[in-house]
User: Fold this.
Amino acid sequence: MKKIMISVSAMAVMSFAVATQANAQTIGFSPEVGVNFSNVVGDQSDNNESKAGLKVGLNAHVPLTENLYLSPGLHYSQK
Assistant:
C-alpha cells in the first residue's frame, strides 16, 4: 500500500510539472479567510455553547487546460 501511494504521488507531481510547462499561462494565488463555529453535543459534554475559530489559507490556481485548473491549498483551521 505504501509503494502504491508513493507511486501515485510521484505520478501526480510529474503530471503537475508537465502541465505547468505545457501551458504558457501563469500560476495564480489567492488568500482565504473565514470563521468556524463549532460545538460539542453528547452525553460527555458539560457545555453546549458554540466556539468561534479562525480559518486562514492560501490557494494556488494552476492551469491544466484552457478551462481546467488544479487548485491546491494550505489552510489553518482553529477549532
